[in-house]
Amino acid sequence: MARVICIMGDSGSGKTTSMRNLDPKTTYYIDADKKGLSWKGWRNQYSENNKNYLRNDDTNIVRNYIRKLATSCPKIKVIVVDTINGLMIADEMRRSKEKGYDKWTDLAACVWDLVCEAHEYRDDLTIIFTAHTQVERDDSGYVFTRIKTSGKKLDKIVLESKFTTVLLAKCVDGKYLFETHANSSTAKSPMGAFEEQEIENDIVKVIDALAEF
Asked: What InterPro entries does this protein map onto (predicted)?
């Protein structure tokens, strides 16, 4: 079973930058936002010529790439999909002329299946999805931050439920951090993985901490 992680946060909160210390030789980066990465020198690390970078927002193509990397490229240990919202929005725009409830069910199923399938791959693989966030208020008036989704169908099935680790990227007093446990958010992590509520924004350290889970 692969390890599947979600890094959620507002734009500019450090989601992409947290990937800066991954080894490009064992990492494949899927840029679903098609915006490039956010640190100096990334073009030398990730590119089509290096065979470790894909700019694509078609969920079916991304799903096939992940499957191929997981089954046929054992040297790849980490796959990053940045962001899952890029896939959702692109699917929604491609089907913008379609009417009816079935469209939203299909869109939800497409993303849900992508995340569910990610868990089925080899044990030495980590798949990281980044996601934008939205603020919601429940029926009791509780305000919290969660993964932003397209349509109410994905809200109802709760995308966070498919991850054992959901970290909230944020900037506090100019310092970029990950929130590891719920604090007015849907952030969560395995018991005992992180002692602190907030940790350094570095996905490599997160992967190391989760190695035993």
From this structure: P-loop_NTPase
pLDDT digits 0-9 by tens, 34-78: 999 999 999 999 999 999 999 999 999 999 999 999 999 999 999
In sequence order, what E strands does 9-125 have? 27-31, 53-55, 78-82
Residue for token pair 């962001």: 83
**Separation between Cα atoms, residue 124 and residue 128, nearest integer Å:** 13
What's the CA gap between 14 and 12, in Å, rounded? 6
Name the one residue in this structure whose structure tokens are 């208020």.
137
Which tokens hold the place of 6? 């979600």
Residue 124 neighbours by CB under 8 Å, 6+ apart: 74, 77
Q: What predicted TM-score, i.e. pTM, was given to this entire model?
A: 0.90
- Which amino acid appears at position 54 of this protein? L
Are 88 and 147 contacting, i.e. CB atoms less than 8 angstroms apart? no
H/E stretch holding 86 reads helix 84-94
Residues 6+ away with beta carbon under 8 Å from 76? 26, 27, 28, 52, 69, 70, 125
d(CA 148, CA 8): 9
Helix locations, 8-73, DSSP H: 42-45, 59-72
Residue with tokens 């980490």: 78
CA distances from 7 to 17, 98, 152, 161 (A): 11, 31, 21, 14
